[in-house]
Design a protein that fits this description.
Elements: H1 12-16, H2 28-36, H3 46-55, H4 59-72, H5 84-90, H6 94-99, H7 101-111, H8 115-120
Helix pairs in contact: 3-4, 3-5, 4-7
Length: 132
């Protein structure tokens, strides 16, 4: 998917051209995802990326940002443990990767040479079909 110029400065609501509305639901996750839908994706923290990717939201926009972070530190950490961002990226459904092969190539390049560190962090790459 070709991204428009300046997409990092737009929210998921703007990019996907749909309103998430305002949610009055007693769940941290629902409230946080709704909040994140309204801020520019380029302002997302590693934890924000982990949350939204884990929920399957905005993958076309958030996966490139996540891969950029993984290139810097393959074990980029949100709020849980080293490598939690990578783990969520690896659990994205295979259909996404098949439709976005350039991103899959970038992900594999980020992983390459870091396999020992990844395994030491408790992430078993052999469990993720898309990488093998």
């Amino acid at each position: 998917m070709k991204l428009e110029n300046g997409w990092q400065y737009k929210s998921l609501e703007n990019l996907e051209k749909k309103s998430w509305g305002n949610v009055d639901y007693d769940s941290y996750l629902v409230k946080r995802c709704t909040q994140l839908s309204k801020i520019p994706v380029g302002d997302f923290s590693i934890e924000d990326l982990r949350i939204m990717i884990g929920q399957g939201f905005g993958l076309n926009y958030l996966v490139p940002l996540a891969i950029d972070q993984l290139k810097i530190n393959i074990l980029a950490e949100g709020d849980y443990y080293p490598g939690d961002l990578l783990k969520n990226v690896l659990t994205i459904p295979q259909d996404f990767w098949l439709s976005n092969e350039p991103l899959l190539i970038q992900l594999k390049q980020a992983i390459s040479g870091n396999e020992v560190d990844i395994e030491d962090a408790g992430i078993r790459l052999k469990n993720f079909k898309i990488i093998n």
